[in-house]
Amino acid sequence: MKPVSGQRTARVAAAMLLPLMMTAAPGSAADAAGRYTMQQTDNGMLRLDTLTGAMSLCNARNGAWACARIEDDSAGLESELRDLKRENRSLRNRIAQLQTGSGDLPTKGAAGVGGISELPSEQDVDRAFTFLEGIIRRFKGLAEELQQNKPNGTPL
Q: Residue 90: left (phi > 0), alpha (psi -120 to 50), or beta?
């Protein structure tokens, strides 16, 4: 058997250890192999980072491929969603307070939940009719006075 040169031994050892190194090391090429997906578009290739969700548009520029990240407004949308959830929770709590009577309920005559106010009592209705009756009597008195003061005596 021929003796193996040092260079050849190093190559054989590297070839045997390479698969072990790729599977053992975190963040290795094996992990990155399925991390990105690519999709052909009219403007180049769309790259999706399946780990972070970041998207990039890749195309050839001056003979080399380059990728530019596609910015989205997800941070703004997430912030608005958090605000809406907080407001929804607050409104639900307020409704629960009003339903259980532990919150400040609308006073008599004030608009309540949904714009509905309390109905007036019988005393309130009687006072309103008395007031209206007084207005009608005054109006009738004025009409009679005008009738009497008319010079020709023709009815109104």
A: alpha
Q: What would the two tokens of residue 98 be?
A: 């009003």
d(CA 121, CA 27): 77
Bridge partners, residue 60, by sequence = 65
**CA 146 – CA 140 distance, rounded (Å):** 10
- What's the confidence (pLDDT) of residue 72? 77
Q: Tokens 């009219």 — which residue?
A: 42
Give CA–CA dist 113/88, Å, rounded. Answer: 16
Q: Is the pLDDT of residue 65 over 80?
A: yes
Q: For the segment 21-50, what is each residue's pLDDT rounded down to a tens digit?
A: 444 445 555 456 788 899 998 888 999 988
Closest CA to 57 of 65, 72, 45, 71: 45
Task: For CA atoms 103, 105, 111, 112, give the dihedral sign.
Answer: positive
CB atoms within 10 A of CB 37: 10
Q: Which two tokens stand for residue 60?
A: 């050839």
